[in-house]
Amino acid sequence: MTGRVSGKTIIVTGGGGGLGRAISSLLAEEGAAVGVIDVNGAGAEDVARSLTEDGARSIGLGADVSDWRAISSAARQVGEALGDIDGLVNNAGVAALGSVHEADAESWRRIMNVNVSGVVLASKAVLPGMMERRRGVILNIASIAGLVGIRNMAAYCASKGAVLSLTRQMAADYASFGIRINSISPGTIASTEMGLRLLGGDESPEARSRRLARYPMGRYATAEEIAQAALFMLSDEAKFATGSNLILDGGLTAV
User: Fold this and answer.
1) DSSP assigned state of 243
2) What letters, b where the CB count within 10 A reaches 16 and e where it falls short, cover 86-110?
3) Rounded mean pLDDT of the chain?
4) Reduced to 3 states, what is the DSSP secondary structure of residue 40?
5) Coiled-coil segments, which residues (predicted)?
6) Which of 18, 32, 55, 124 has its CA 20 to 30 A from that of 91?
7) What is the pLDDT of residue 213?
8) Within a domain: 255
9) How far is residue 151 from each of residues 118, 199, 215, measured CA to CA in Å?
10) What is the DSSP string of 124-144?
11) DSSP-based three-state secondary structure for 247
12) Catalytically annotated residues
């Protein structure tokens, strides 16, 4: 441990599993007190318990980021338990396959509510305190799906494109308050539930070979690799970065 976020209190939404768990764990290893928030409250509590057993300060809470009362209450509880919020990772997200002509209206709304409104509401919950203290970092987990068109993923692509645009807008609004707002755009993380869902569940050798051919590095990302990038963006090492999007896709969007 090098203590790159030592003394900071950071909330991770969607922290109960997959990428959120990897980010929460690395932040705790690097000295942060971590508020783990997830719609799956038991998952959030399990992660927080594990971090606490390893010597970190952590609290796990169940909350739906698209529900203002729930996420604002959870953020307040994190602050009361762990101290002023220094950072927020907007990681909570959902996905579904489907093109526009076959999009289910309820599924579309849910994806937009969680992936876009959830970023707004979680940020709204922590921004007043950050503005008062004139410091803070918000990191939005976007996706390469917000940068390129991916077949059969209309709602997810639209939502992540919105996250990228929102990141730039928020960076412009809050830079004068000493608050940095950035995003990272991972490629596929096949080891997570979200990654498997986006792959459509087809893990046959033929399908895997076809998909991997799009990645010049010839493999998918690991959750731990994305967590390392998140740590950098949340640390003081990135203190001149705001409105930036860090692409982590094994070269997919470069070719």
Assistant:
1) S
2) bbbbbbbbbbbbbeeeeeeeeebee
3) 94
4) coil
5) none
6) 55
7) 85
8) no
9) 24, 11, 16
10) HHHHHHHHHHT-EEEEEE--G
11) strand
12) 156
The number of angstroms, rounded, from the C-alpha of 26 to the middle of its chain's C-alpha atoms is: 14
What pLDDT, on the 0 to 100 scale, is given for residue 196?
A: 60
- What CATH number is attached to the domain comprising 130? 3.40.50.720
What percentage of the chain exceeds 70 in pLDDT?
Answer: 94
Q: What is the dihedral of CA 188, 47, 11, 26, to 10 degrees?
A: -60
210 pLDDT band (50/70/90 cuts)?
Answer: confident
Q: How confident is the model at residue 200 (pLDDT cuts 50, 70, 90)?
A: low
The DSSP element (H or E) to which 171 belongs, if any, is helix 154-174
Q: What is the residue range of 39's domain?
A: 9-246
Residue 3 lies in a domain: no
- Provide the pLDDT for residue 55: 97
Number of domains in the chain: 1
Assigned domain for 68 exists: yes
Residue 208 lies in a domain: yes
Q: Which residue has the tokens 């896709």?
A: 249
CA distance 205 to 188: 17
Place of tokens 């690395």: 26
Is the pLDDT reported for residue 160 higher than 90?
yes
Q: How far is CA 12 from the centre of its chain?
A: 7
Task: Answer yes or no: are the C-beta atoms of 155 and 103 closer than 8 Å.
Answer: yes
